[in-house]
């Protein structure tokens, strides 16, 4: 099966073409990667930048408890830093709220956000509160990663094995609010130099893996029977639902045994597929390769 | 005249109290300053972070030409970096748009933004496009400043003189879309170590100067007859209207003559007042000290 970029990917590509405006010396990964990675003035570190928003009616509901909204806002952005192997340092928070009457809710959102930030050791250093028609939170993160080590989406090669952390599917209605960003796992993987490519699963394996494959110019085969299913989830859901916030990464086959033996976490680690030459296309035993499309 | 914090300042203080969550080693200025300033791993530089949003119906209108919306979004954030004396390096852009039908408008917004970013030498390195009920753009900037040199709002002392760049008042309907962020002026002032405190004027002198005064625990007197009025603007407008995007800064009196003699820009430089002891209060010859209040 061949797979076309989703409507979202096409639009975003079209919209953002004009934004690739300036070559930045020391920019390692820019637009189109989970995080931006820049050389820092220090020779040992790169800087990692990420922004991510949650919006009422899209990423949470009016009925979602406010502290969980705040937690999700920062945990989503942290999941991208995890995929970059980065250690989070500082956050800027922009909150849009419909009117001062929602102040009590916004304060509870902030409390959830601050508590999550403390847990994952991110200092909130600035931001602003603006008036919008729906509640929204946008979190920008600054992190650091050992120089030149942050993997991105373009490093997978035919023969590399595909892994995911944790379990997939059935993230709504609960887990998308309570997931743990895989910061420790991402930092460890990058520190040990295992991943040839890595990203986090936010729109679902069926949407995100094709993005990694296109960036790396490879094909792939998923083994659906191996997918680590969340309790109650089907294989189809594990591929087509989004908001898993697990790590998806490729590993050269020579490193796979060492990875399995040395994995130090209780978090599940599962080999779910293999990278193929581009001409082989995308294979998933007939399960449609699609995920959450923000613009469908 | 004494002046109470605006409704906005009170709400923001209340909302954000819970966000001051974690002491960050090397954080020089955090929440409550125009920009966050952090020690960089490099000993010569500090990192400067800023996020700023523009929203349809608040910062621009449906009828505002799209490229000017993009330009304003980044120019506003750059104005804050100017007040920190920082050199901009990289930007993340979050765009919210009501539906894919507004794609043509969003593309024109992005073109304006990219062109402005090129002009001021900022690389756009990431971001996202999300669906919102009204068009909005949030820009997060990373910049650098010589280590330990970035002024903030709290350094003004009684006897220091108050200066502004450019001219004030009458920013709507045009200048708020076409202003030049004072990056060169801010960088020069900080490089020469003139300002004891500095901020940019976004909500109007009548709102912003009291913020600087409260942060510095001082009083002040404005000389309205000295205010550099924009063409057609009254003194009252120069104090109470917002969106000037000029620099407001205090200078120890011993440095004033040297500042005047060495100012190398065609941009106007005007002494508009003097810092007083806190007990003297805030004086503006009867013109009300208020500005644009986002939550009034």
Structural summary, described in words:
- 2 copies of one chain form a homodimer.
- The first copy, chain A, is α+β, with helices and mostly antiparallel strands.
- The first copy, chain A, folds into 2 domains: 34-146, PurM-like, N-terminal domain (60s Ribosomal Protein L30, Chain: A, 2-Layer Sandwich); 161-283, Alpha-Beta Complex (Phosphoribosyl-aminoimidazole Synthetase, Chain A, domain 2), CATH 3.90.650.10.
- Helix content of chain A is 29%, strand content 27%.
- In chain A, the strands form 2 sheets. The first copy, chain A, has a 6-stranded mixed beta sheet.
- In chain A, a hairpin with a 5-residue loop joins strand 2 (36-39) and strand 3.
Properties at a glance:
alpha+beta; six-stranded mixed β-sheet; Phosphoribosyl-aminoimidazole Synthetase, Chain A, domain 2; homodimer; 12 strands; 60s Ribosomal Protein L30, Chain: A; 2 domains; 296 residues; globular
Give the number of helices of chain A: 8
Give the termini distance of chain A in whole angstroms. 21 Å
Q: Can you tell me the CATH architecture of the largest domain in chain A?
A: Alpha-Beta Complex
Spell out the CATH superfamily of the largest domain in chain A.
PurM-like C-terminal domain
* Largest interchain contact: A-B, 71 and 71 residues
- The top-level CATH class of the largest domain in chain A is Alpha Beta
- Counting copies of identical and different chains, the oligomeric state is homodimer
Q: Report the order of strands and helices of chain A.
A: HEEEHEHEEEHHEHEHEHEE
**Morphology of chain A:** globular
Strand order of the largest sheet of chain A: 1-2-3-6-4-5
Poorly predicted spans of chain A: none
